[in-house]
């Protein structure tokens, strides 16, 4: 493969000189396969590309995930209930506390 560029990359999204961020040293779930040896390039807070770790631009800021797993995700900011309570049926502070406790017990982030 060609060598990584040695000049600071320009942001493909903004056109500015902001360096890319690279998440490295992770087991990456692509949505179809589980890969080792890939880096996730991030530009201005958005995933830009998955590249072989050896192709990360030299000027990119590297962030080692130290063998952790990295997977695409979707944040569902709408929670209607939990712990046997539906907020639509009981819109109270007590319901919110029950729902929060239930979500916390399953390591759901809210």
Task: Describe what this molecule looks like in 3D.
With 110 residues, the chain is mainly β. Helices cover 12% and strands 30% of the residues. It has one helix and nine strands, in the order E-E-E-E-E-E-E-E-E-H. The chain has one helix at 93-105, and strands at residues 21-24, 27-29, 34-36, 38-43, 46-52, 61-64, 69-70, 81-82, 85-86. The strands form three sheets. Strands 5-4-1-6 form a four-stranded mixed sheet, with no helix packed on it. A hairpin with a 2-residue loop joins strand 4 and strand 5. It is elongated, with a radius of gyration of 20 Å. 13% of the residues are buried.
Short description:
Helix content is 12%, strand content 30%. By secondary structure, the protein is mainly beta.
Figure out the total of helices.
Answer: 1
Order of helices and strands: EEEEEEEEEH
Question: Largest sheet, if any?
Answer: 4 strands, mixed
Helix-residue proportion:
10-25%
Uncertain segments of ≥5 residues (pLDDT<50)? none
**What is the residue-averaged pLDDT?**
82
What distance lies between the first and last C-alpha atoms, to the nearest angstrom?
43 Å
Tell me, briefly, the overall form: elongated
Strand order, sheet with most strands: 5-4-1-6
């Amino acid at each position: 493969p060609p060598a990584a560029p040695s000049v600071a990359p320009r942001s493909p999204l903004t056109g500015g000189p902001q360096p890319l961020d690279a998440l490295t040293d992770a087991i990456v779930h692509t949505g179809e396969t589980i890969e080792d040896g890939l880096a996730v390039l991030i530009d201005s807070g958005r995933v830009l590309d998955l590249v072989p770790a050896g192709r990360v631009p030299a000027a990119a800021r590297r962030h080692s995930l130290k063998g952790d797993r990295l997977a695409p995700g979707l944040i569902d900011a709408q929670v209607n209930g939990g712990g046997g309570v539906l907020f639509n049926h009981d819109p109270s502070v007590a319901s919110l506390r029950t729902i929060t406790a239930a979500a916390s017990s399953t390591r759901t982030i809210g």
